[in-house]
Amino acid sequence: MERVLLNGIDLAYDRRGRGRPLVLVHGYPLDHTIWAPVVPLLEADFDLVLPDLRGFGESAAPAVAYQLTDLAADLAALLDQLGIARAAVVGHSMGGYVALAFAGLYPGRVLGLGLVASQALADPPDRKAMRYQTAGQVDENGVAEVAASMPEKLTADPALQVKLKELILRQAPAAVAAALRAMAGRPDSTPALPGFDFPVACIHGLADGLVPVERAREVVAAARDGRLVEIASAGHMPMMEAPGQTAAALHLLFL
Question: Whole-prediction pTM value?
Answer without folding.
Answer: 0.97
